[in-house]
Amino acid sequence: MTSTRKFWTLRYIIINATYFAVYSGIHAYASVFLLEKGFSNTLIGITLALANILSVVFQPFVAGLIDKQGKLTNRNVSMASTALLLIGSVLLLLIKNGIVVIFIIFALIYMVQMVYQPIITAMYFEYEAAGCHIYYGLARGLGSVGFAVTSFFTGRAIGKFGVNILMILDIIFLTIALIVLYFFKKPKTETPKIEKNEVAHNNLFSFIKTYPGFMLFVLAAVCFFFAHNAINDYMIQIITPLGGTEAQMGIAVSCAAFLELPTMALIDKIIKKISVKNLLLISGVAFLIKTLLMLIAPNMIVVYISQAMQMFAYAVFIPAGAYFVNQTMERLDQVKGQAYINVSITLGGVFSSLVCGRLLDIKGPHFMLIVSFAVTTVGLIIAFLALKVVAISRKNRS
Fold it and tell me: Which domain holds residue 177?
């Protein structure tokens, strides 16, 4: 690795690692934090669903503004998002009670972080095109390590210091992220001119008409992430009947995240041997197996095995999805494409939060996992059909 590449990669690693360290506090431990603040499972579900719905609206909108090649760049949006998250975390640390206020602030920072996520990926492709060579897979994998390390220690720290430690850690990581982003300036290069035949499909219906197979795959991914989000958001409720604790939850979550690194770090080499299309199908099968194992788990050992499937599920889907966009989209649609991949994750969270919070209250975690398994099965069937449509569309355009 050249010194220049190390320099850009190191800073991009820090951006990813701090983002996902904060993601651990806001997302993985959302239920733990909100339960402590007096929220019911149903109210937690409503909070997360609202946040996800808002992010579904704002992700394509913000991406469309960035795709217009104006002053609203990936870096500027990243800095603004980080600043908003920092302010929200400080407020949640200072506010001792008041469910309504906590509901509003938590929903907003959850939403902002989801809007910000595809921008980080789009920033990589933007900087790579400008000659700032970055090892994306390694950086994204180490982002997962940041999530894993934070999750592992947070589970123990909550037992000693209480849930407010979540916001203290978020404030530290967000401050580091903001400093690094400020100095993460792309070298000045001549912006590629927009050719006459290049069109940005900012209208949703135009986008769907142009990329029907891609949008069908987005629907499949929604199904994958219904189960993925159900397991992540309600992990504590799933493992409690098995004798699990917050500390064991930390182990389960960090185990999954640590195992993402090898897959993501090697993704550039893997893609040379296995097509992006086949990698996406492999990830779908892995999501299905992960959910099945969680459903039949009689103890924490099987829960840990289920979490280990992350290295073939999420760890494959995220980088493969990013490259899928880059291969499928025209240049002026690529930020939107990354946003729609993230929208699939978000919508999975919306439906998961709306349905699973209620299912937990009336039927319990086992029934919730049965529903999640069924939804993932449907998603795998849709994914297979969607990738067939993409292949046909590409052949017709060529």
Answer: 3-185+202-397
Distances (CA, A) of 192 to 67, 72, 142: 13, 16, 31
Measure the CA–CA gap between 194 and 200, rounded to whole angstroms: 10
208 CA to centre of own chain: 22
Instruction: Count Cβ atoms below 10 Å from residue 95 Cβ, excluding itself.
Output: 13
Give pLDDT tens digits for 254-272: 788 788 889 998 988 899 8
Angle between helices 74-94 and 165-183 (to 10 degrees): 160
| CATH, residue 305 | 1.20.1250.20
Q: Is 322 a domain residue?
A: yes
Residue 181: pLDDT band (50, 70, 90) is very high
In this predicted model, what pLDDT tens digit does every residue of 295-316 receive, in sequence order? Answer: 999 999 999 999 999 999 999 9
Query: For residue 146, what are the CA distances in angstroms to 18, 23, 24, 306?
Result: 7, 10, 9, 21
The contacts of residue 380 (CB under 8 Å, 6+ apart) are 220, 223, 224, 281, 284, 285, 287, 288
Nearest to 328, CA basis, from 344, 341, 342, 310: 341
Number of domains in the chain: 1
- How crowded is residue 86: how many other Cβ atoms within 10 Å of its Cβ? 19
Query: Would residue 192 count as lying in a domain?
Result: no
> What gap in Å lies between CA 169 and CA 20, rounded to an integer?
12
Confidence label for 232 from pLDDT (cuts 50, 70 and 90): confident
Q: Rounded to the nearest 5 degrees, what angle is found at the Cα of 29, between the Cα atoms of 27 and 31?
A: 95
Rounded Cα distance between 253 and 256, Å, is 5
255 found inside a domain = yes
Which pLDDT tens digit goes with each residue over 90-125?
999 998 778 999 999 999 999 999 888 888 988 988
Query: Is the sign of the CA dihedral 74, 79, 80, 81 positive or negative?
Result: positive
